[in-house]
């Protein structure tokens, strides 16, 4: 008889963390791979680049819309089996894109990938938090999130280079192979954990639900500000005098700086979560403001985007950890809310940035993004229960709040109602 799974240390859980990190890498790469292949896709499938760009936009919309309902609908399924299913669907999606005869088939295959993405990230966030002891949650999430950072830094440039060299269809085929490899590693390295349908016993507390709502709403606000500017980062670099031939290498180096922020979160998030969050958002705001002030000076813009990129590298684990530690819902539903609000911010930020660009010009865009992230920083400074000085403070505050709330007899008598 197999012993029940027990959370462990980072070292004990490292095999599962690495597998989840690789799976996260291929998931992010799958989401963003059309960005670098749009010219090839549009030319081969006889659609405009703006229409081809909908492959990315529609993907994000599907994730935002489906993350919560699909996570709730699959709540009773085994967590490991569900992750394996989503990775299998990623593989099928990329294979279908590689052989698609028309743009409509490509769009349908991408829709399948978007639905898989909605479940995968929701479950993987909760899964990572279950692999380790509670006081190691921040580091575990940071290490898994590093896979996403590497996806941003290397995944898209590599698939773009591959697509340019051998064609966009073989590039999607190679990505399908990477998804299949990640599926195998998850099958062998990731231990099964208990299901994610039931919320924590204390999640009925209004204070805990409020803390979760604050964490996820602030997360959406940060992504809104980020993608208001980041969507047009290539235009900012070109406007600052960078040559087109240098754009790819510059984005690669700047993206790699995001790993610095991820490493910072991994080192500090389990000890000083509030300070880590504040430093992260200050770096993002300062970097964006500096971009606006330095534009169009090449060196100034490059340095400023470097600071901003390093700060944003810590954003995902910071807000994932805050949401998980709120204990306002089951880990998987919490992951779904983080997943959905991130994608609402991504889609909304792209639309808002386009509006600002059209009406006010490129030089105004960084200031708008900085203002939105600054608003999120104000929320963090005010919401001390959601963003506590130490991880244990969140539990203590919520326990005090629970003790002062009136008892609800109906809930006590019918806990599963």
Automatic annotation (TrEMBL):
Q: Name one GO molecular function term.
A: transmembrane transporter activity
Kindly give the Pfam families that the UniProt entry links to this protein: MFS_1 (PF07690)
For whether the record's keyword set contains tRNA processing, the answer is no
Record domain Major facilitator superfamily (MFS) profile: where? 16-387
Q: How does it sit in the membrane?
A: Multi-pass membrane protein
User: Which GO CC terms are listed, alphabetically?
Assistant: plasma membrane
Could you tell me the superkingdom of the organism this chain comes from? Bacteria
Instruction: Provide the transmembrane region boundaries.
Output: 12-30, 50-70, 82-109, 115-133, 140-159, 171-190, 211-240, 246-266, 278-295, 301-324, 336-358, 364-383
Which protein is depicted?
A: MFS transporter
């Amino acid at each position: 008889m197999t012993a029940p799974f027990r959370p462990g240390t980072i070292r004990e859980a490292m095999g599962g963390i690495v597998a989840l990190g690789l799976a996260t890498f291929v998931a992010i790469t799958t989401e963003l791979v059309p960005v670098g292949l749009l010219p090839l896709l549009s030319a081969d499938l006889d659609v405009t680049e703006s229409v081809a760009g909908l492959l990315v936009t529609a993907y994000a919309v599907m994730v935002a819309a489906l993350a919560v309902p699909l996570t709730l609908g699959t709540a009773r399924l085994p967590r490991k089996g569900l992750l394996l299913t989503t990775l299998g669907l990623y593989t099928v999606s990329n294979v279908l894109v590689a052989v698609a005869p028309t743009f409509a088939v490509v769009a349908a295959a991408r829709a399948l990938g978007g639905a898989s993405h909605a479940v995968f990230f929701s479950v993987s966030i909760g899964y990572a938090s279950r692999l380790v002891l509670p006081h190691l949650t921040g580091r575990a999430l940071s290490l898994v999130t590093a896979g996403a950072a590497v996806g941003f830094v290397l995944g898209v440039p590599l698939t773009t280079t591959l697509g340019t060299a051998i064609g966009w269809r073989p590039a999607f085929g190679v990505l399908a192979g990477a998804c299949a490899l990640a599926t195998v590693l998850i099958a062998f390295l990731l231990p099964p954990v208990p299901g994610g349908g039931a919320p924590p016993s204390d999640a009925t507390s209004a204070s805990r639900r409020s803390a979760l709502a604050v964490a996820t709403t602030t997360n959406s606000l940060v992504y809104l500000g980020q993608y208001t500017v980041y969507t047009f980062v290539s235009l900012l670099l070109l406007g600052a005098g960078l040559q087109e031939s240098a754009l790819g290498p510059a984005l690669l180096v700047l993206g790699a700086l995001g790993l610095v922020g991820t490493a910072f979160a991994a080192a500090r998030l389990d000890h000083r979560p509030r300070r880590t969050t504040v430093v992260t958002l200050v770096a993002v705001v300062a970097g964006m403001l500096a971009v606006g002030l330095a534009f169009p000076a090449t060196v100034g813009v490059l340095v400023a985007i470097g600071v901003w990129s390093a700060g944003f590298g810590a954003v995902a684990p910071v807000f994932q950890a805050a949401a998980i530690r709120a204990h306002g819902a089951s880990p998987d539903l919490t992951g779904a809310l983080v997943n959905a609000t991130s994608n609402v911010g991504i889609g909304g930020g792209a639309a808002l940035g386009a509006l600002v660009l059209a009406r006010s010009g490129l030089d105004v865009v960084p200031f708008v993004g900085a203002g939105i992230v600054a608003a999120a920083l104000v929320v963090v400074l005010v919401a001390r229960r959601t963003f506590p000085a130490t991880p244990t403070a969140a539990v203590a505050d919520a326990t005090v709040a629970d003790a002062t709330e009136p008892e609800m007899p109906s809930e006590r008598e019918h806990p599963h109602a």
